[in-house]
Amino acid sequence: MPTPPGQPVLDLTIELREVEPRVWRRLLVPGSVRLDKLHRMFQAAMGWEDCHLHSFEIGEDRYGSQFDDYPDDELQEKDFTVVSAVGTSERFTYEYDFGDSWEHEITVHRVGRMAKGLKFAVCLDGANACPPEDVGGSWGYEHLLAVLADPSHEEYEHLSRWVGRPVDPHEFDLALVNAHLQAVR
C-alpha cells in the first residue's frame, strides 16, 4: 500500500511519574525531528530548564547524548528521528536529571500524517506545573510544597529564598507552553 502524502506526526502525552498533582502535556510532534530535539521539546513543554542529562528508553533501546560515562549500549540520540526510534511502540520513557530522577511516561496515541508540514511541536492540553529544578526528586518536591504552604515552618524562609519565585503546583498556561515550543531549535 502506498504511503499517504505528508509529514508523519505523533500525537502523544508526556506525564511526569510520582508527582502530585499529576503533571502532563498532550503534544503533536513532527515525526521527522531527531531525538535530541524531542528532548528540547519535552523540556519546553514541561517547563524544565535543560540543565541536566537525560535519556530515552524505547523498546529495548536506550538513547542519549553519550556524554561522560554513558552506558555502552546507549545509542546516540542525534542519529535517530522520532518516527524511526519509536516505530510501533505505544509507550516509552524519558528520564531527566539522573540525580533527581524525573521519569516521564510517554504514551503514543497515534502516528498520523499531515498534508502541511508541522514546523514546531504543538501542545493541545495539559495540567499542572513541573517541580523546580534541583528540588530533590518527587520526595523533595512534596517537602517543598508542604513547607511553602506553612509560613510558620522553620524552613519556610530558606526554601522561599532558594526557589526565588511563587510555586503554584496547579499553574498551567497553554499559550505560554506553545510559545516556548515555538522557540525550540
Task: Give the SSE layout.
Blueprint lengths: L6 E10 L6 E8 L4 H12 L7 E5 L2 E4 L9 E3 L5 H5 L4 E6 L5 E13 L7 E6 L9 H12 L7 H8 L10 H9 L3
Parallel strand pairs: 4-5
Antiparallel strand pairs: 1-2, 1-7, 2-8, 3-4, 3-6, 6-7
Helix pairs in contact: 1-5
Question: Can you describe this structure?
Answer:
It is globular, with a radius of gyration of 18 Å. It has 185 residues and is of the alpha+beta class. Helix 1 packs antiparallel against helix 5. An eight-stranded mixed sheet has the order 5-4-3-6-7-1-2-8. The chain has one domain: Roll (Structural Genomics Hypothetical 15.5 Kd Protein In mrcA-pckA Intergenic Region, Chain A). Strand 1 and strand 2 form a beta hairpin. It has five helices and eight strands, in the order ββαβββαβββααα.
* Helical content band: 10-25%
Number of strands: 8
Kindly estimate the percentage of residues that lie in beta strands according to DSSP: 25-35%
CATH architecture: Roll
Determine the oligomeric state from the structure.
Answer: single chain
Which structural category fits the helices and strands?
Answer: alpha+beta
In round numbers, the mean pLDDT is 94
Rounded to the nearest angstrom, the distance between the terminal CA atoms is 34 Å
Task: From the alpha carbons, calculate the radius of gyration and give it in angstroms.
Answer: 18 Å
Report on the biggest sheet.
8 strands, mixed
**Can you tell me the CATH class?**
Alpha Beta
Strand order within the widest sheet?
5-4-3-6-7-1-2-8
CATH topology: the name is Structural Genomics Hypothetical 15.5 Kd Protein In mrcA-pckA Intergenic Region, Chain A
Q: What general outline do the C-alpha atoms trace?
A: globular
Fourth-tier CATH superfamily name: MM3350-like
Secondary structure tally, helices: 5
Integer count of domains? 1
Which regions are unreliable across 5 or more consecutive residues at pLDDT < 50? none
